[in-house]
Structure formats: C-alpha cells, structure tokens
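note to self: the first set is below, dont mix up w the second
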Amino acid sequence: MADRQLKQFGHDIFSWVKAFPRNTPRYVTERLPIIKWLPKYNRTWAFRDIVAGITVGLIVVPQGMSYAKIAGLQVQHGLYSAYIGAIFYCFMGTSKDLTIGPTAVISLITGELVTELAGRMSAPAVAAISCLCVGAFTLILGVLRLGIILDFFPTTVLVGYTSGAAATIVIQQIPKWLGVPNINNRAPVYDIIIKMFQAFGTLSWLDLVFGLVSFVLLIAIGLAVDRWGRGRFAIQFIKISRFFIVTVLATALSFAINHNAPSDEKGNRVFKLSIVKTVPSGLPTPAVPSITSEIFSEIAPKLFAISIAVILEHIAIGKAFARKNRYQMDSNQELVALGLANVTASFFGAYAVTGSFSRSAVKFQCGVRSPFAGFITGALVLLALFFLTPVFFYIPDAALSAVIMVAVSVLISPPSVFIQFYRVNLWDFLSSQVALWVTIFVSVETGIAAGVAFSLIVLLFRVARPNFHVLRQIKDRPDVFIDSALDSTIETVSPPHGVLVFRIEESTTFPNAEAFKTWVLDETYKYTRFGGHIKPASEKLWSDDMDVHVRNLRKIAHGADSHVTDDDLPKLRAVVLDFSAVNSIDSTGLQGLFDLRDLLKDYAGVTDEPSTFFEVHFVGIQSSILHVLELSGITRPVAPISLQKIEVLDHTTSGDEIVPETANKKSHTDIGSAAVSVLGQSPFLKEAGLVHLTVRDAVDSVLIRSQSWENDHGNKGSDFGSISKTDIHYV
C-alpha cells in the first residue's frame, strides 16, 4: 500500500538522520566506492583498463568537440565536460563500463537553451547554469533516494525522444556537412530543410568534398571491420578509433590546404574551407555560475527536461551494462555521483554530462575491469587541452559534422523497434510516436513532456477502465474459473443458476469505482431477473427507463433476435467478487462496494422480501485489503470457529438429489461466517463464509448456505431447489 510505503520512507529518513554521526565513516565509504575497490585492485587489470581508457579518450576528443558545436559552444567546452565527467566518475561510480561526458541529446537540449537566451546571457554562462541546476536536482534525488520518479518515464518514450533528438541533430548538421553557408541550424527542422535547398547554389565544393569523404570513410571502416574483423580486437580497434583517425586525416589535409591562406584588407586570413580555428589552451579560470530569478523561472521547464534526460540516459545505460555483465549498480549512488560531477563541472566551463552509450560500449568491448579506465580517459583529454589545441585550429567543420552524424545515427532506433512496440501494445507504439515527432518538429523537452503526458493519460485510463471479467468454470476442471470470452476453444459451463462470478483486474479506487459498479449491475441485468415487486406505471419515476435499458442489455448478451423475458432467467441469489488482482482500495472504492451491495440486494428482492436469500462473497482478498473490508463491516471477520456437530450431506443419493443420511452424520465446522473443512470430512464443504481462498470455495459455500436457508424457510421463492450433483463439484 502506498501509505505504508510513505510511512516507511519517512521512518527511513528519520533513522538515517538520527544515526548519521556514528555512521559517517560508512557513509563516506558508500559515497566514494573507490575506497572499497582500490585496495583490492589487481595489477593484471591494469592493461585492460589502460587500453580502454586510451581508446575512449581517442573517441571522446573529437566527439566532445563535435557535441560542443551542437550545444552552440566553442569546441573546448566539450573537452572540459569530457575530462571532468570521466575523472569524477572514477572516484564515485559503481559501474566499470559506464563513462560520463558530453552526449548528443544533452548537447541538443543545451543548444536549444543557449539559443533561447541568446543576447541576454553568453553561451558559456547558459551552459554553466544549466549544468549547475541539473547537478543540484540530480544530487537531491540521489541523496533523498527519490529514484522512483524515473518509473514514470516509460522505455517507449525514452526510445521515441532519443530517436527524435538524434534525427534532429543529423538534420542540423547537413548544411555544414554539405558546405551550405549561412543556415541557422537552430531553426525548426522544416525551416532548415527549406532554407538549405534555397541556398544550395552557394555551397562550398571543398567543404562538400571533405564532408562526403569523411562520412564515407567512417561508414566504410565500420562496415569493413564488421565483415572481416569479428573476434579480432586489433581490427576492431580500427573501427573503435575511426572518429579519431578520420579527424586526424581531415585535419592534416585541411592544414595542407589552409596553412598558407591569404589575408584580406583587414588582415584576417581567408581560408578555403570552414574550420574550427582558435581553441584556447589549458583550463579556464573557475567561476561561479549566476542567473537572475526572472531568467531562471523562464527556463525552469527546459532545465527540468535536461535533468530528466541526463538521469534517464545515465541510469538506462548503466543498468544495461550491469545486467549484461552480471554485477549490481547502485542507482541512488549513481545519481549522487552524476549530480556532484555536474555541480563541480559547472564551475569549470563545462555543460551537463551524463552516461554515453557509445563510449560505454567501447569500454565494454575493450574488456575494462574497473572504473580506473575513466581516470585514464580524463588524463588523455587534459593532455589534449594543454598540448594539442594548436592542431585543433585546422579541424574542418564538415569533417566534424560527419563525425556527429555517424556518431548519433546509432541512437536512431530502426523501424523494427517501433513495429515491435505496435505488436506488443498499441498504446506503447503511440507514446513512442508522440515523443518522436514532437521532438523532431517542436523541441526535445516538449517531446519528453508530450510522451510522458500521453503515457500517464493512458495509465490513468487503464486504472479508470480496467478489464472486468465474467467467470465461468471449465467443464473438465470445475475448480478453475476463467473468462470464456478470452479463449473460446476452452469449453466452459455457467455457475449454478442465480450465482454470478466477477473479477476486476485493478485496484478499486476512485477512478474506476463507478465503472465497476455500473458494469457489475449491467452484467447482473443480462443474466438474472428482478426478484422484487414490480411497481405499477403510476409509481415509477418520470425518468425511469430501466425496462428499456435491461431489454437492450439482454439483446446484446443473448442475441438481437432473442426474446428473453424474466421468466427465462433465474433470480439473483449471490454475487462472487474475485479480488485476487486488487492491491489497494480507497474510500471511494469502499463506498462503491457498499452502494453495489445495496443495489444488488434491491435487485434480488431483499428490500421487498427481507427473507429472500442473497449474499455477496469475496475471493482472494489480500491481507491489507481484508483488514479494510473487515473494519468497514462489508465482510465478516475471518476467525477460528469452534467445531460443532451438524448434519452433513453424505454421498448417498436418491436419483439426482443428494439426500441427508442420518446414519452417516459426521463432524464439521458450523456453517457460519468462516467455516473451514476439517480433515476427514466432506471435501465440498470447504468454506461457508463470505471470504474465500478460491472461486470454487465461494460457489460451494453459496450452495450450502442457500440449502440451509431453504430448509429454514421451506424453499419459499427458491430458484436453487435442492442441491444436486450438478451443483456440487468435488475438488
């Protein structure tokens, strides 16, 4: 129950605060996992960790610079994010495979934020404040162990918005990749495409050649290694390092073309193709991010979207590799590590970082053995910042665009994934499509919000309109009751006349209480007749159209050509409610049960004739629900009952009837509120109360209690008659 879990959560927080002083050393150890694994570090692991660290470093340098361009920042900011994330995670991470740093999706959302605040804040300032806010939010979730918030973001939405963001990035890079100048790649996707075709005549052929050749090389290397290099790490390493290799080759050619570029009348060098140009060497001076309250309130929704995207991407990737390698990842510690990494990075010119799928996959392929590989990666990026920035000057923008397009293309899910969603569940497919297309044509944060909102609406609809079932017993298995509508190949028979069995596949709460009550009543009208006194027309209300409603329901149930009348149907004698799927019940749901019971009693005729037999039985109630129902008085308390001598129907029969045999009386519990069979007694008398373990027990209990009632009332008005063999089934 949610209230019990909330109380337990509050108790855990109180206990944690109370015990914090004496548990501080243990808490520090938990927050710095390196304290645990470093003393146990095996020297044989070092080779794999160093190879993995260097390999990821060769990838993250060109990727980091490329992703910074997506974020609307200078390329060095991507490297700042890369080294801080990698080194920080070495000390606080709980996954050996995961590597954190700049990623495509987060770069895209950051770029949208930079564009939104252009003219009011500098791009580095926007990136820093977003990094700080994302880190603080993530850190709070981790410290308070509020990772449950992630459960409201379905996998289908994650797939949809990730694919949409990746497709958006690819489209944004096409102008630079093809050398089409003066295109605002922050404009809507459709506007980029239109403007690009309009300006196609002004493209730079040299940029086009660099872009196309870089793209073809990246694809060709990948395909060639996949075909001929399986199982051979040395060849696989070529594919892993292809971004670095192509970037180096393109930079070398660019230097050869541009190093003697002439200058214009103002002294500015005129290069023959678009290049990165000056990249500051070393590290920036630490600075505290600042923002006004007005701007913060304006961008809060986008900051929340970045935070959610950061957390979802990180946890999903980490869990995937932990599951693949069969080790445990502490999700709350991951949030703490991610939060502190972003908070720290915000002071050093970085933007928001999270787990990278592609780079984590590379670490896995390299056989990484511990988080120490992240330290090697961070150190390599630092070396690049201090010693290689002059080389970065000549990196072609077209080549960087090609690197971006190939790198993010793996994030675009193929059609087969969405087809699988469709086959599994239509609503899952629709939620993925909402997230996909809204992300492409509006924005990433709107895509996330739209996808999640759609999924929550579907969830609420499922709660408000769950599946209800009328149960019938299997002919050859009288102890098993199913909904015959779900499988017409199984032959079923109806319960005894006047007994209806219903199942609800959801908790009984305020969204579905009225629907459940209405559905049970409608099903009751279909298969039983009114047991009370029929009012004359003069006494009916002006709005009473029950006769028409019941007649229409019976046409649906028995066929439009049928002419089912009350004489063809039995009186209602009992309703059995299977609550085995009910996990919780609230006040509205409880009131709905009382209202349903009263309406059923009226329909059975109890109001007009108090001596009429009618009961409501419950099956499979969980202990927490049973406690609520007992307190409310709608069920009788289940408690041990003293054994009493009563007459029991023996198996000796006369014709089709089971008749009492006074010579064969046996001991049995009293037929009271919760009678239970005693070993050695008649097996069909298992339970005679209002709460039962199985539907079979409930139906048998109804038959036995109705027989007792008939004996006491002289069979007046009974549709059951005497209990026959066809009504009692031995289990």
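second set (the one i keep forgetting abt)
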Amino acid sequence: MYQCQKVFQNEEEAKAAANLIIMEILGNPSYQEDEKFDKLLNQFIEQQLELDKKIQKMIQQQIDALNKTKNFMDQCFNNVEKCEQQIEILNQEFDKDAQFHRELVSYEKIFFYRKNIGLMLDQMKYIFRVQEEIDKMNSTFQSGNCDYENLHYKLIALVDIRDNIIEAVNTSPQSKQDLSIILNEFKCLSEFENKFYDKIYEILLTTIEASIKKPQQLIKTLQIIETADKSRELRKKELIYKKRALQTIEQGIDEKFNQKLKDAKDAVQILEQSKFSSADLILAFDHTVKCFPKHYNIFKVIEDQYKVNVEKRILPFLEDEQKVTESFGTLINLLSWVDSYEQLLSRVGEQSESYVALRCRVKSYMPIFQDHVNNLIIDYSEKAIRKDKSEQQTLENITKLIRTKQDLLTYFPEDIFHFINQQLDILGPNLKGEIFIEFIRSVCGTLSEVLKKECRDFINELPSNEQEGEVSPLYLLVLQTNNYYKCMTYSNETKEYCLKFCNELISERVQQIFYQDLTGGFNEIINLLLEKSCKMVFNEINDQIIPFLFSPKWQNENLIDQALLTIKDYLQDIQLLMLNQIHFNKLVKLIFKQLINTYEEQLLYTVQFIAGIPKGFFPKLLTNLSFVNEQDKDKKKKEKDKKAAIQMILSNKELVVPQMQRDKDVILNSIEQDFIAQVGKTSAQQFDKILTTLIKSINNPKSEIDGLLQLYPQSFEQYSMYILEVVLWMREDCDSKYKQQKMEILNNLINKK
C-alpha cells in the first residue's frame, strides 16, 4: 500500500501526485478484480481526504507566519521613527551647549597654569635658602660620617631645580634676565655635585676588593647611581651615571695592570705577572657579581677589560715574527695561559673563547712552529739512524746478537720515540683542541715520511749479494723489519700517552691519525722490506735454478725440489731472527707467490726465446735472462742447439705435462708439510688453482678451453693474454683462427672485470 510521505508545496502539486498514483493503480493487472478494486478505491479516497486536511493545515501555518512577520516589521518601522526623533532632539541640545564646550578648553589651561604657579611658589621658598642648604650639605659631607643616600636625595632636589631653571632660560629668552638672577644662587651647587660623585665613584676603582671587604658600601654606592640615573630618566635626559660607573671600573683595572706589570719587559714576564687576573676573576664571580644589578653584566665587563689589558701588551710581541721564531717556547706558554684562563671561565660558568685575537695570532704562527718541530724530528731521526748504522749495524754486533740469541734489534726505534715523547711532555699539556690535533698530525706525518725515505735509501744501498767481511743483506733486512716492528709497538705506546692529553671530543681523531699515518706508514715500510727480502731469497734461485726450467736439465734433475730446499733453508734462519710471526707469515706467502709467478715468467720467456711469442712480454722477476754465455765464441751455434732441445720438450705434451704436474705436487706438498700455517689454506688453494689451470690448458681437450678461460683473469692477472698465447702455441690441435677466437674471448673477459 502506498504511504504518503512527501510534504507538498501547493495544491496543484498534491493533485498531480494523486493523479499519478491513480494511473499506476489502474495500469496494474493485479487490481483488475472488481472487489479488490473497490477496496483499493476506498483506501485511496480515505488517503485523499487525509491529504487534503494536511494541505489545508500547511496553508494555514504559512498564513500565520506571514502575519507574525508583518507585525514585527511594523514594530521596526515605529522604532526607527522614534530614533530619528531622539537624534533630532540631541542635535538641538548640543547646539545650545556649543559655547560651553569652547570655554571648557580655556578652563583646562587656566587650571594647568594654576598648578604650575603653585609648584613654582613652593620651589621659590626653597630657592631663597639654597645657599644655606648647600653649605649644610657640604659641612655634613666634609665630616666624613654622613648618610650618603639622604644627602644624595637633597642633592637631586637642588639639581632638579637648577636644571629646570636652566631649561627655562634656554626656552624663554624674554625671561632670561630674571631667571639668571635666581640661577646665580646655584653656582656653588655644581662644585659640591662634582665632589660628591667623585667620592661616590672612588670605591669603584677597586671594585673586586670592595665587594669582598666593603660589600654594603659598594651596594649603597650602586643604589645611589641607580637613583641618579632614574632621576635623569624622569626628566628624559641621557643616563650618564651608570656609564661613568663602568668607565671608573675599567679605569681601576687599567691602573691595577699598570702597577702589577710595570717591570714586565717581554711576553714571558707579562704572562707570569698577569697570573693574578685568574684569581681576580674567580673573586669577581664569587663576590662582585652578587653586589651588582644584573643589567650591569659586571663579570663580562671585568673579564673584557682584563682581556684588553693582556692583549694590548702581548699582541705587539706577536707582531714581531723574528722574536716569535727565536722563542717558540713563549708561543706555547701563551697558548697554555689562554687555555688555562678559558678553563677557569668554564668552571665559573662562562662558556666562551675570550682571547680570540690572541689565539688567532698564535695559530698564524703554528705552521712555522710545526716546521720547526718537523725539522727537529727529521734531524734527530736522521742522526739516530746514522749513528745506529755506524755503531749497531756492524758485523761484530749482529753476529753477537745472533750467537747469543738476543733479539735482532738496534736502538734507533727507542731513541726516536723517546725524543717524540719528550716533545709531548713539553707540548702536550699546552696544546689543546684543533691545535693539538694538527700538531700530532704533523709529527706523525713527518716521522712516517722521514722513515719511509730512510727505508728506501737503505733498500737502494743494500748489496744484492753477501760480501766477505760484511753483514749478510738478508740479516740486515730482517734487522730493519724488526726495528720497524718495534717502531710500531712504540708508536702505540706514544698514542696511549697522547690520549692522556685529549678529551673525548678529539681522542678518536688522534687515534685515527696514529693509525693512518704511523701504523699505516710502518706497515708500508715493512711490506717494502719483506718484498726486498723475498727478492734476496730468490737471487740464488734465479741464478742457479730458474733459468734451467723447461730445458733438458729440467727433465733430468728435480729443479723445483732444489729451489724449495733453498727457500726452506733461508726461511728457517729468518724464522729464528724475525720477531713478529705475522711478518714472517707474510714473507713466506710472498716467497711462494713469487715462486709461482717466476715459474710462469720462465715458461713465457722460454717460449719467447724459441718462438718469438708472446710479443711485448718482458719478465719482471727473472734476473738471469741468458740461455747461452754471452762470451762464448760459439754462441750462435749453442743458442741454436739450445732452442732445438727446448723445442723438442715444449712441443711434446707427454714430456711437459707430467713434469709440470710433478712440479705442482712438490710445491703444494712443501706448503702442506712445512708452511701451511704461514701460507694459509686459502692461498694454498689459489696456488693449486693457478698451476692446475696452466697444466689443464696445455693438456685437456679443446672442449674444456672455454671453461678454463673463465679462470685466467684471476689466476694469471697481467700475464693472462701471454699465458693463453703460449698455451695455444704448445697445443698441436689449434689453428690460427681458433687461436684468434680464444684470444678475443679472453680479452673480453679481462675488459669486463
């Protein structure tokens, strides 16, 4: 059944809705039955009647609302008419009183004049006995036992009168003659005023002492000064009394410095005799600050004036570069003085760098000072090393150390770091913050560079072979390795000593400097010495064993066994003498790596000798590059015979591969049995991989070449292309096109990496 939920705005809208519903009912097939239709029709009629009632009620409500609105608007119109009538009446009343309002302004002026006349009469009574008052005040003041505050109030009153008269004279020329007569009565007031304030300000010449011995008197003085400035403020005049108080305090500080430092002739004496300033500032913070109003900011005033007095005496010394360079100690003392001064300020709650100008000027000399310290380090280090070389690195001394099983060491590491520590003893407590960091960086950098230079010179001057009556070069290398290991140990001790002078903010940076410059430098030096030791071990092997690899002698004798035996003999001696196991391990690894690289180079050089490939290759490790004695008369014939013999070996895989396999096994067995702890399993596996790749490249089927090429860049590094060219030459199953393809593949692999 349809429910009427919509509220219609008018009768037409309601009828249209009713007709629409009727049409819907008539068009619905479910209502075709007569009985059902009648029932629905009756319901519709009832709904229609109900709807008509609601429409009538709604229309009546709208009519009522319109009537209420009309009544309200009528009331508003009536009120507007009444307001207009009232405004008209007020305008008429104001016009009647206009004359009174104009006269009221004149009445106010008359009242103001009357008030001023009354004040003037009161002041005139006082003026006529001003001289008498000043005499009384002067008498009281001279007695020395007076109430300064009460006296000051009387003085302010007289000064106000005098200043008012002066202002009147200046602003009223027509009254000048009459007022000048009165002003003459105040001539003696200025003299008394000056004497009074001079006496008041006297205590401020010794402000700090007064705040301790006479705090109440100082406080009363400041109250008088505050009152005087407030009086001037009321008259809208410049405040001069506080300004004079601050000037007097500064004057007192200047006089104190002049007295205390009258005998100081140079910067050292100035600093020494200025030490009282630190104690004064503590007293000022503890006592003087409590006596002064906060707006004086008195501690900063005193601190700034102390700083001015120190700087104006010290800065001229710093302007003379010659004097500074003649006495760097004064520079350091000055830094120490400034730092201690600022530390004192931090203890009393002031966080600032007070002596900025002094600190900046001192910093400008730091490069010169650093050069001076660096030169001292260089000179001392060079002398210590020369002395060590002439007195300690002798055959007799080294033989004695070895025979008595003492550490193979000399004295220069200890001497150098003892000298460095002495400099730290002097400078460490006096250098702070960035200056200390730059000092440490310069010292570490200089020491590292001078020792690197000495090491390079030592290596360059070292003979390649042991000479009769001289120390074995290998022993000297072990000795220097031990010395620089001790340098590293001493540098760690020096670092710990340095950290005692560091706060938490810079300690990490100081440790980083030691690690990068000194520890890093010593590691670099030790690596150079180990590399040189490795080459020294190979001198004999390169001369007597390596040149015969891949030759008929290689087929008949166990050359690699001989090389390993020689290496083992050297390493046994070195192990007994070298102090640091890590350095010994590194040397062993270097030697076996060089053995593998030398093996590769000799193969390349041998093929180059007989076949002219690889082109562009030149060995870096081989020292004996002669297959035939250069002085031999039949050199050409013997060279030809040598090439033929080698050619026969290298062109026969059945001869080459087994021998190379045996060499690999011997090397790896030696590592495994005697030196695995030093070489390490990872490096041993890498050596195995290198030799295995080389052998497989010669022996395995062509189908495996591509897979082996993937290992070349890491295994053979800079020799990869040369090795492949030689391997492909040694194989009989590779034509030129195949060789070119594999060379291009390897080249691409290398470029990708």
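remember for set 2: The two ends are 88 Å apart (CA to CA).
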